[in-house]
Amino acid sequence: MSVQDGIKNAEESGLDLVEIAPTANPPVCRIMDHSRFKYEQEKKEKEARKKQKVVHIKEIRLGPKIGEHDYQFKVNHLIEFLKKGDKVKVTMIFRGREMAHIDLGRKILEKLSSDISGVGEIEENPKLEGRFINMIIRAK
User: Structural domain tally of the chain?
Assistant: First the structure.
């Protein structure tokens, strides 16, 4: 049908003529209530946003010469983050001559992974990136 006939039919029924596929040959149009259509689309998007779960990534930074009390304090925070459902990025930082003892940092990260094995699991294994060893842990 021609564009003029489509517009005439839409005006008679009190609705809008909406172009659905402008690239088709001939272009495809539909007679509908455009404001109601937009309202329903917004409603669907709002429902979809409600059902989404936002996962935050928290970061805990350690050094290879960390004391036992400081280590336990950080582990407790890590467990707290995992119980909330967040992911945790553990970063081991090496400064200056500490770069010669990367094995000490790896031992601490192995101890950490065994300490939190009941609450979380390792998503990304420890890997060396310059002066840092990064590891990502997620809740079970």
Answer: 2
Residue 35: give its domain's CATH number.
3.10.20.80
> How many whole angstroms from its chain centre is CA 53?
9
Quote the CA–CA distance of 136 and 58 in Å, as a whole number.
10
Statement to judge: residues 65 and 40 lie in one domain: no
Q: Is the pTM here over 0.70, yes or no? A: no
The residue range of the domain holding 118 is: 57-139
On whether the CB atoms of residues 119 and 65 are closer than 8 A, the answer is: no
Give the pair of three-digit tokens for residue 120: 């979380």
What is the distance between the alpha carbons of residues 102 and 129, in angstroms, rounded to a whole number?
A: 12
What is the spatial distance between Cα 29 and Cα 22, in angstroms, rounded to a whole number? 8
Write the DSSP assignment of 9-74 as a string of letters: HHHHHT-EEEEEETTSSSPEEEEE-HHHHHHHHHHHHHHHHHH--PPPEEEEEE-TT--HHHHHHH
pLDDT in tens, 44-90: 999 988 888 778 899 999 999 999 999 999 999 999 999 998 999 99
